[in-house]
Amino acid sequence: MPPARLLAALDWVGGRLENTVAFRDFVAAREVPKQASGDMIKQDFFLKNATDLRRRGKAARPLAVFFEQKDCPDCEVLHRRVLADPETRGVIAKFDNVQLDMWSRDLITTPEGKRMPVRDWVRQLGVNYAPGIVLFDADGKEVIRWESSFRVFHTLGMFDYVASNSYREEPSFQRFLAAKTEHIREAGFNVNIWRYADEPVATPPQ
Fold first, then answer.
1. pTM tops 0.85, yes or no
2. Angstrom distance (rounded) from CA 80 to CA 86
């Protein structure tokens, strides 16, 4: 957790505010997002003008919703140093990917079929940080989410966990990742779980 958010969390708990104000709203009141002159960082795999997120029909694909905001250093790290990884992009391509400004008042239809402003859906989901990625299966049910700090290994694993349907047999994402790590090591490679896309991939042990 970034230092500013850690301090906010300590103040939120220390002030016994958990029963009076949501942590996300408390942080927003302390750190009002700056109005950026440009748009959020785009990717070629983001659907354009996607406002209906319902999963319908036998051809429905899993859904990845990227909750971001302008003037977001962590969002830039996600785009420049994580989503640049070719293997990760290959798995992401198996999803319908939607980027949303978490503070937007634009109306969307959620995977559950509810019509509401984006910011209200964010509050309902309990997404507190940007960036946040929430993955839904082809039936529109949330499977897993990750917020704020991303690395290639965990991001790739999260998307693979849903795309491979492994979540249906292994309910624990941590156990799924542990098994994935063990398979890589059995193949004779070390695993750097903190790696960014611009750093070396798994390498043979010295």
1. no
2. 12
